[in-house]
Design brief:
Strand content: 25-35%
Number of domains: 4
Largest sheet: 6 strands, mixed
Pfam families: MoCF_biosynth (PF00994), MoeA_C (PF03454), MoeA_N (PF03453)
Function: Catalyzes the insertion of molybdate into adenylated molybdopterin with the concomitant release of AMP.
GO cellular component, one term: cytosol
Catalytic activity: adenylyl-molybdopterin + molybdate = Mo-molybdopterin + AMP + H(+)
Structural class: alpha/beta
Family: Belongs to the MoeA family.
CATH topology of the largest domain: Molybdenum Cofactor Biosythetic Enzyme, Chain A
Shape: elongated
Number of helices: 13
Length: 598
Amino acid sequence: MSTETYADTLARLLLDTVGELPAISLPLREAIGWRLAADLLTKHPSPRFDNSQMDGYGIGYANVAGGRFRVGPDVPAGTDPTDIYHYGVNGYGHDTAVPIMTGAKIPEDVVAIIPVEQADPPHFVDTGEYVYLPSVEVGTFIRKTGSDMPAGTLLARQNTLVDAALVAAAASQGIAELTVKARPKIAVVAGGDEVVAGKTPRQAQIFDANTPLMQAFGTTHGMEIIATGSTTDELRDFQSEIDRLIRDHAPDILITSGGISEGKYEVVRQLLDRLEVSWVGKIQQQPGGPQGYGVYNRTPIIALPGNPISTLVSLRMVVVPALWKAFRSGWSPLAVQTKINSTVTGIRGKTQYRRGTVGLQGADLVTQLQGEAGSHLLAQAVGSNALLEIPPLSRFKPGQTVTAHLFADATFDVAVKPLPHLKPQPVVDRSSTADGQGKTAQVIIASTRAAAGTYEDEAGPQLVQWLRSKGYVTPNALVVADHDLANTMTQLMAEDQEALPDLLITSGGTGISPTDQTVDVIGEILDVQLPHVMTAILLEGLRHTPHAALSRGIAGVVGHTFVATLPGSLGGVRDGMTVLDDIVDHIVEQIRGQDHQR
């Protein structure tokens, strides 16, 4: 199960058990970081009245042509002009210029504002003195009622994240509380006999890091963690603790950290195995593969692995997406595309989530790896602001784009190394085949016994001798244990594909025993398969033994390299050489783009 599929599974579990959450009302300041439960409409027009956009002089319609005017009493912001001009400005005198301040309500009969700096003199004078004003158009520097928003205007849509601007806009409408989406109430449990909190650990014990980790993560990612608990390695203690949390705090969800793997004292796993609705297993991610869930007394449990980085990765990649999909409250998971500044290679069969630092280099978002991949390396996670997604057997070089899953408190003002200056790669001429020039090959023997020295490899020397006789520059065969073949191929594929050989032949690991992995490993990296090549080798082998039918060999192309997997027996190797001897040069020429001779 992929990480995304598992998050979807948890979201459905939460909807089935917790259900829709009610809306709640919060004071404006407390609502920051929450999401609106409904559309927010304006109660009043904005502005609520015609007001002055400038500090200046207000004049009536008869005076827009400009001239010499007598200055009337001031109209400061917040003062009702009818208290000063009882019968309007014209009632005070038709040649009146009204000193009015920014934001002040426009007096009756005023149709335009002239900024004070355009007057002569260019400053406010005392009441009764005279001032010269230029001509002006009607409506100049007057903000009309409702010009920003009429009453009943949509201020913010449902699900909008409440921020400072929204709080200010709501406050300007006289709104003191906002109706927001409730967050699920979460209780977290961590522990084990080796974990202590609030006291000095004894020998073989450690401080509790996971409880503070989950609390801090919840704070930054919009999770409402209402209670914490701890447990020993005894099932009855764990069950008693979650009974207490449910009784005293009534959480919507329980999240545990640890006790879910394959060990003898995995109390979370023991409890989940006893529940009617539960699942325990592994998902295709590293770190944080072991996962589980269950329903205990109508309360869903999300069980996370206990290594701190595994807990962190699971919170960001599993829990946060599940909460968002189920409730649309809290923080919405955010991922960006960014250029990596180093080389990184994925592992076989799992998506890796590596700690990373994303920062700005000019106009580019650049990311770099933060520490090694180990799930216990908590200190190396300090300063990371994202998890970098490295798909299985993927190969990223500096300058290529990777997906960075951001943490909620991520900022891009962090120092990252710039992208290396990439020199143009020389064009490799693969067209020359005279006397074997430019033709290269590699032989890999997959045999645990041969790698351990308990069995002498005879197939490798024969394959190398045959390839050299055909003009291929070929080093001695590389002998690896069956279980090391995947890592060997990962290392080879991490190199520039232009540096790979034209021809890669493996021997061994093509059967049906549990240790035979060659076909699976090679099958995952091939760009193109050539099934008929192996059919021809099978037919050649059947001429000598019916056991040839048991081989699962595979052949194809990866990049510019032809790959064929031969059996481990000498007879199977000879059958392969017999067939390939007539076609391998032609295959290499076709991969190089050369036409074949007619």
